[in-house]
Amino acid sequence: MRAEPASTTRIHPGALLPRPGSQSALREQNQQRIIRALVNGGPQTQAELARQTGLSTATVSNIVKVMAGSGIVTTVPTTSSGRRALSVILNDNGSVAAGIDIGRRHVRVVLAGLDYRILREEAAALPLGHSAAEGLRVAADLLDTVLSQAGISRSAVLGAGIGIPGPIDRRTGTVVQGAILPEWVGINIRETFGARLGMPVYIENDANLGALAQITWGQHSRVENLMFMKVGSGIGAGLILNGALFYGNVGITGELGHTTISEHGLVCRCGNRGCLETVASTSTMIELLNRGSGQPVDTQGIVELALGGDTAALRVIDDAGLAIGRAVAHVANLINPEVVVMGGPLTGLGDILLNPIRRGLLRHSVPIVGETTSVHMSALGDRAEALGGAAVVLSQPARAALPLVPS
Amino acid sequence: MRAEPASTTRIHPGALLPRPGSQSALREQNQQRIIRALVNGGPQTQAELARQTGLSTATVSNIVKVMAGSGIVTTVPTTSSGRRALSVILNDNGSVAAGIDIGRRHVRVVLAGLDYRILREEAAALPLGHSAAEGLRVAADLLDTVLSQAGISRSAVLGAGIGIPGPIDRRTGTVVQGAILPEWVGINIRETFGARLGMPVYIENDANLGALAQITWGQHSRVENLMFMKVGSGIGAGLILNGALFYGNVGITGELGHTTISEHGLVCRCGNRGCLETVASTSTMIELLNRGSGQPVDTQGIVELALGGDTAALRVIDDAGLAIGRAVAHVANLINPEVVVMGGPLTGLGDILLNPIRRGLLRHSVPIVGETTSVHMSALGDRAEALGGAAVVLSQPARAALPLVPS
């Protein structure tokens, strides 16, 4: 890897996107239009881009200049109707996006091309309770390995989208209390990773990345309003609203694991009582099953027992699913999504988990809302978060090279 | 009023806005840019508009032509740097927007100018359990009265934004089951009102209009993510997400009144049990207070008793507020709004109601989310919904005149 750390101006504030309506948001929208036009229509002149996007030729020319400067596009002199023109070509000359998913026990790296082809994908184990420094080291090493296996130089990497299983305060770029990885709380992951990896980094909550992956690589590319819900030792969700990731005020959204299900229930790690996580996380399921049997069970064991017809496992999953469905119903009543996609280590359960979730949804939602919300398992399995990381980079290729304007 | 009913093409499908990303959404965005530029910068040439918006002169010219055709702008030949040009002027020649709020017992009409000045405002009583036809007749008569008092001709009205206290299915434009006004269920209010009023109509859920009023006329004009929650005989909310009204999949959002608070509680009008409405609506408060005292209480009585220090009223409000706060906490955990504004007939209670709501919010939310969500009473009182109706019309002045393109 490169010896020098990236300068701070190279580290992109993925956690501080411009607000809609601001000048920088307007410029960002215009860039996205141009990139979409190039992805859909192939190489074309600036005049053609202006016609297709409705932007002025001056605007197109300015944006193309910036994108060419950062290697996103190449411009080639040409003629159009006998006049001199500039043909704009989206570079697919080896530029790649990296997606990195860091979990409690694993790290996964994917590389994707500008054409959204997955070039390489690897996972490595992490010890439970690993420090942030250790997680970072393993992730950076795995990225090196994957790049070298694929024969791709580090300079070809546009950036890395990194998923963290915890809420991220977008005002500061730090993981806040309530993370599944308490060792990471308070660390500015964006700066830490940016300095270590020597490339622009985009930090995201892992469930947000899972949501983004569903509309990018999943079967829901045409869905405008979708929730991706991850049920594991923690429970969280990512929201796609009006076709884009939704961040709310400070960036902490989808904290469904802390929906109150039982007012005087068990104490949750968040400090409240009876949260969904205390009745439906895999940790709770494991604890319930371990009390009832002589043989200790892990997450994979829950799935195997249930698929084998074990009565206790089926009951524990059914109770958890009903509670999850109740939380999903509250979401549906509030924001009326078209699709809810379930992810995490229990996706192999299929209808065994989906059926009680659907019952809970119908039981606790306004009828028309429950009936128009469909619930599916993610087809991306445990790849969703890392894929979403690459999608974050691909969805804003020009932004990293732009000067930052306060919004 | 005009004798002839409006043709159906004149009736704008306020309930069927284009999806973001579609061609019509793109055109709509471009129009909004031009209108904003005219509102902010005053009359200017098409070339200046192109520079200011980043759009091509051809795009600006096309949109201006359509807007001129519908009377939204006037174009005047001028010269700019010695060349012939067209100056574009936003019309404020008496054009007005009407906002109509229809409740269980009242109808309210406001008229606003293109400069957002409120020109006139009137309310009239409606009998409880009125039919849709009767509500419509009273609303249309009141609009006639207000127009004639203000000396404004019907042809100067750009359209009417109409608030209905019930969920509206945007696929069909009808009020669906669960409405506070069961007499209205299944009626296509858009067509009915459009034909009766003879102008473009925009139908909205009343809480959505309340939310829109907060960012248009309220003290929250710079807030990007806001929930307006109306607590009355029903409980519902409108959402402003990323600066715009949010509709979800079929248009039914903010159904907070049906958050499950008590799993085996009272049966709710929606068919579920223990919904927030069964513990915190004004109907429930009235029922509780009437059981405990010899003197029957109405909604205004709740406020008067509490302000006078009545122990039972204070307790009933405190319990209701805590339950409302729990529902608000679930919202905050999910979408992390910056501000929650409370509206409806209990706003006069001030901190008596706000304090238990804030306690409930902090008790049931992830700490950083609860601490960064502020809860206020609406300063617009019972005017919010009608004002929001006028805001709907003003926020899309050019759209009514555009041909409809399937999105």
From TrEMBL, chains A, B:
Domain annotation HTH marR-type: ranges: 33-84
SUPFAM superfamilies on file: Actin-like ATPase domain (SSF53067), Winged helix' DNA-binding domain (SSF46785)
Gene Ontology MF annotations: DNA-binding transcription factor activity
Any Pfam family matching the protein: ROK
Domain of life assignment: Bacteria
Composition skew (Polar residues), residue ranges: 1-10
PROSITE patterns with a match to the protein in the record: ROK
Residue span of region Disordered: 1-23
Recorded family membership: Belongs to the ROK (NagC/XylR) family.
Stated name of the protein: ROK family transcriptional regulator
